[in-house]
## 1
Amino acid sequence: MLSSLTTGFVARLRANDQAAWFELWQTFGPVIRAQLSKWGKGQIGSQTVQDLSQETLAALSDSIDRFDPTRGARFSTWLLAIAKHVLGDEMDRRNAQKRGGNRRATEIDERWMAGRFEGVDEAYEAAVFRAKVEAAIRMVEKESDFTDFAIYRMRVLDGTSGKDVASSLGLSEPTISRRLAKIRDMLRRRLSQVVAMYSFTQDEASEAERNGLDLNPTKADDALFDESIAEIYHRQMELRRRDEEAARLGG
Amino acid sequence: MTSAVGFILVTLGVLVGVVVAAAVVMYLIVPLFKAIGWVFARIFGFIGGEIADVARLIGSLITTLVFVPIILGTVVVGRWSASAHFGRAMQRETATIGGCLYRIFLGHPARLFGLTPLTEGIEHRIPEVVRAAPGADKPTGRTAQFEGYKILGSLMGGGSGAKLYIAEPDAIKRATFERQGFGDVGRVVIKSFSIRDGSTLPQIVRESRALDAARRLGFVLDHDLTAERFFYITRYVPGESLGLVTQQLHASSGAGLSGKELSKGMKYVADLLATLDSYHRGGLWHKDVKPDNIIVHDDTAHLVDLGLVTPLRSAMTLTTHGTEYFRDPEMVRMALKGAKVHQVDGARFDVFAVGAVLYSVIENSFPAHGGLSQITKRCPEALRWIVRRAMADYDKRYATAADMLADLAAVRAAADPFSLRPADLPSVRGGDSHEPELPHHDAAPFVDAARVAHAGATVPPRGDAGVSSGQDAHVPAGERLRQRPRLLITNWWRGSYRVAGEDSVVAKASGASGASARAAAAAAMSNAANAMNRAAERFGSPRQGPVPAGSTAPDRGVAPAARQAVRNERVRAIPDPARRSAPEQLRAARERAAAARERAHARMSGRHRRATGADGVSGVNAGVVAAVFGFIGIAVLLGGGVVGYSLMNSRSEGDSGPRVVVADPQPGLVLVPDAAQVSGSSGQGVSAVNAVARPNEIVNARIAEAMQTASTRIVEMQEMFREASELASAAAQSPGGSVLIVTDVLPPMSRGARAAIEGASARMMAFGFRLLGNVPGIDVEGDEVDRQNDLLARLRSMRGQIPLGSADATRTIQQFLASNPEAGDAVVWVAPGDDRDEPTFYLVVRGDESGSTVRAERIRQALRTAIEHRGTQF
């Protein structure tokens, strides 16, 4: 069953809330582009990938009314099905298939709704999850105090020691620990919200725990949580760097 | 008991073994397999890439060959547009071929061996520089004519669809700029939007919107909007973009900036911040700050491109225009929500962009991750902090450019930037932020311009145009601008008032309030002052400069001495062209009219060219030229080849007579009667020489009949080149040595015989041989004469009457050489031939008889070549 956050978000998309679309684009755009590039296998250039990823979101807005949450499909599968449909459409256009002839126009494959969609692989699922974590980090960055987040970034994302962070900012180590904990808690809360917002199934919702991001942790889990966040953050950054580099050179 | 202990020990041993095995697998085998996989991935990547590129190359070559006849066909039938279209396609194919060749021979091999840094310059830096190269230097057409400006060249256009020209204003324009207070204007950049050139109306409207404000601030010199086009003019700043400069800094610095390079990078960003501070204080927001829009000249960064400049208090809806990576995502969100420009603080978006620029300077890359982008290169922690602070969330970043500049100035001022902690930055330390310097040398004029603009703008002027300090510095620019000025009336009767916190007293202009009224009043005052100056000059009073339009009207209550001081401060020399006498002005007007006629004529001819397809869009381009010249070249080569082949065939078929047959039955003895052609052997007998020279009349007649003189020359030239190359090769391989020349051709020699002998001698010397014996044209002196004569006498004595060329003669000469080491490595005996002009050369090389040694064989080859190539002179 969908959470209220998810239904709320889908409702915003259905209402054509531009900010919601932008959020979706910013969060999952790189993942879709990477997947389209993978499928394209060099047949489509980076600029076309950019265009297709935008078309994917446009197709999403068309298909969102037909979305049936009771059939057990994952959010990531939903995105992927639409991206695949858009890519197939592009390939058909290139191959100059006659519309209305012997072959029907490409129609969106709705098998994804039953969770039996081909083409979903582990790498893609992992990328979608990383995108969710990144969205949560961004939300925390936005709502937290600048210095607090800077401490978290230096300590966890950049891997600076607590002592160095304290010395650099002229604060005591206990203060650093306290502020770190504050951001960590905020991040856990935000992560639960983001995961709930972009998850359609229970399996997706429990993804965070499987990736070392226990949302209801004990004190001992903090180190593991920070470590997982740092790793996911660095992987996601590398994905984005490659993606943007390709887009820049192609453009 | 013992067995139990043994069992435990064995179990422990097994456990330890398993652990060790697991460790070995984890730490040795897995990395090993990874390494093997990596190597295989490289190799297969290389092979796959090579195959793909070779296939692509072949495909492009075929496509190019298909395009050539198509282009020629379209040129022949006069379809210029189509030919240009196909020409462009051929250009692209040629570029593809070049790219494939590069990857096949350099790119893929370099990647295979992990030499990617080797190709970075070719693959990244060169394309960027080429992309940034200016366009056509002399644009044509009506849209590229600008009254009062001479176009000198053009620049690469940006994403706005505008054309950029470098121009020089004429004397009248310069004088106009002087009068408007723009100071000395050198070259200018004209940014022109023309519907004919592909610009769209929204682009034109957007760009024209902010120009009035930018002109007040002195950033724009001139602008014009007509039905067809819109253009504006700014000062030209030569130099390179910050992106390129950053690449150069990193190339010379290695891993991360440090020392001088870091200092330079920080200075450029400080320049940028100072300029932006001027913008924000003048009520403008640049909106497109990025490395490509920052030009570095004389170690100073200049911000250019006013395409998106927007008044901070504009009532327009916020748009998402800008450049990705340097545009704050928050701005996009706000724009999507429909926010108005005056509801947001645009200065903060510029600050975000400066943070992104600083990131790009440090990282030599763009912030793909927005505010979360990680800085991986070596960099002072304080600088890292500044980047994060500038790119932080909208509400948390620096409120003003001046705040950021203060922090940056602290890093720049530090003896060792790497030891400076973020805690030491003014924004973190709080309270005692010192006033930063304004490093930009253009900042002063900007500030002056800002002051001028304030006088005529609705924005209340600030007391000092320098960088804000104290409490007010922390008030966001947008909020500052939204604050209403507090006016204190100083004289109700005269209508003068004072802005709270300002020292200057402003006169109320004819009861009207607002910028336009004050601007009009200021312009009127300026004109009046200029008129007064002119009048004063006419009547012999000291000359005074014009008052810039838009400047504040001096208050009547101010003391005359102060007014005079203000006026003196503004004195500027008006250039002579603006003050010429009436006849001179008339003459100048006629010249202008003539120039206008010429331009009109040029425009008409430009139209004609367009109509005939001679312009860049529909006319000849590089592809068409390449196709035509390629076709002509191939045709000439094929024609030459056919003619040459037929000529050679005709020679070989009809020239059985003049061919020389050489018999060479004996090793070491070569008979070379004529060097015209040598082929085959006659089989029997010794030294059977048949050198009947046949006159060339037949050949000449055939040549004359075929009218192929040119082709014959080509063939002859080829023959000469071939011979020359053979000679050069032989000379290179010649081992050198001594040769005894024996000449039986008695004087007086015929001219031909003498030339043949002297030529052969000269070539032998050129091949590194020392000549002994009686050689015509070479004089030998002293005892050497006697010694060589003695050698010749002994040789002649030994030979006796044995016929030259016979086996006995060869044997005898070999014996002579064996018994006389001083006789050299070979003997060349020159005997009279059947023809007086054609002597016969007999060659015997030492050691030939007993089986040819390598050296003897090389000497033999060299001497044979020297004798045979009679057509070549040294």
## 2
Amino acid sequence: MKKLLMATAALAIGATSAFAETKIGMITTLSGGGAGLGIDVRDGFMLAIAQSGRDDIEVVIEDDQRKPDIAVQLADKMVQSERVDILTGIIWSNLAMAVIPSVTAQGKFYLSPNAGPSALAGQGCHENYFNVAWQNDNLHEAAGAYATSAGYSNSFILAPNYPAGQDALTGYKRMFKGDLAGEVYTQLGQTDYAAEIAQIRASGADSVFFFLPGGMGISFLKQYADSGVDLPVVGPAFSFDQGILQAVGDAALGVVNTSQWNKDIDNPTNAAFVESFQAEFGRLPSLYASQGFDTANLILSALDKAEVSDADAFRDALRAADFDSTRGDFKFGSNHHPIQSIYAREVIKEGDVFTNKIIGVALENHADAYAADCKM
Amino acid sequence: MSTLLIIEQVLNGLQFGVMLFLMAAGLTLIFGVMGLINLAHGSLYMIGAFAAAAVAGATGSFVLALGAALAVAAIAGALIEMTVIRRLYGKAHLDQVLATFALILIFSEGTRWLFGSFPLFLDIPDYLSGPVTLPGGIQYPLYRLTLIVVGLLVGLGLWVLIERTRIGIQIRAGENDREMIAALGVDIRLLYTLVFAIGAALAGLAGALVGAIQSVQVGMGEPVLILAFVVIVIGGIGSIKGAFIGALLVGLTDTLGGIFLPELFKLFMEPGAATQTGSALASMAIYILMSLVLIWRPTGLFGARA
């Protein structure tokens, strides 16, 4: 009898492993200061999975608390004991750098719904690493291009002193044709910008560019609006996403920011996404939610064509990017980063809700600056 | 670098300093009187900001919001003193750190559960917004000036409370010899709850005042808590006067260091590298200040004990 039981158990184990189920591991930030971003990515991603109606996909979701060491532990756990096929979800570049090179080296696929550090776009690129959002510099390059086209000739620029902050100022300077009235690195997590605003006032600049994601941007915009300095401000979408605009309030009205996505991009996929996201979660989606949604749809499109176990076929299917993106046409460059248009948006008020409206294209079909260094 | 800019930066440093003082005063009182390391002080700062944002959102009145911040933080402080902190007085500092760290996690998750993960909106009232022109033509935000005045008034009020009132005598006596004042018939348990509630109310007030120009979000208290600890170590643990001087020193060092160090490095470095090195060094400036003070005076500027 005991033998029979063991045989049945062995059979059962054999049966489940033979069953073609795809396991996706999502490591993202669900608690602490940056939780809003991870929650949006997760909700967008799970919405697409639910809409596909497929029940052979399992998503394991874990919270990295925005800490690199925890992200690394979670990645090890997902690869070794959960045995996931695909990983995704990381928001922050410093966490991405800690996790992605090691999981792709172990033969797993990683699709980034947000972080796009320059180190992984150039020499550090990998055939199993795909970025569905953008390379870090892209939105800042677009801000530089917009500032030039708007006729600004003397910008004061600031960003936090960490890798993505340095990428941001590099990106802006790459596309901005004017002079710099000042260049300031702030502390990561800084909440008081009185000193920087005083420098802006004294600098004689005609425009201000800043990259201060999350709560840092809320603080800066409120204090800037209260300071009486009235120079025009440009920035990437990260300080103007749907999650934080309500907390900034009137201080953000009229500010031009750059994004690869907005809720008014006119295509059926996007309209359906915005409507279903709002119906499901009771709030407007942010660009992070759109990135999570696109990432899931890209995976689904590739799974329709190939099994993950056939890595070469699955990789080709991902590279083809044969899915309906919320951004309209979507294609990858040679380093598996998107080639896409980046829009200039303006913050407006719709009824009681602050949101963005597209006012023009800042960069058309833009590829990143590192693709040439990528030898895949 | 003009004189106007320097004066403006000194004002910014002062404003930062007096807000730090509101945090540090409660922390140092609690440590001085009860010998307790309260890591959850940052949570009380956050509770004040959230209470203010909720009341401002419901009523539209900033004054009511400040009142709510004071009241809610004081009540939260009194409650945690009576339920948790009271059991920790006789324990080792490590137990206190562990228990109050647990409180941070509980308050953070509780706040997220109540208010969600997205930052809340709390803005400066219209009558305090915008800049004013000071003598000499300096444009300075009225709200920040108000913060300086409020901070100084609270400091004065605390000084009167501790030096000139009966409760103040009991608090000072409690710092020196808790057995003796218990023997003299003072209700030491009530006194401890009161001190804790005062400290909590000050933290809540700071959270609400600062929340109006920053972002009201879960976890906003912890970075300030670290600075407040630096302040009380510099000022001398248990000393309100030390907390005041320490807070102004830290506020001015942090603000002026952030401006002048990059400028200094530009004298002999390429500008891009100078701003990066200068900013990196500026973020260390207050810790360097702390080390120097501790080398000179191991118990802090006004500290009685090590």
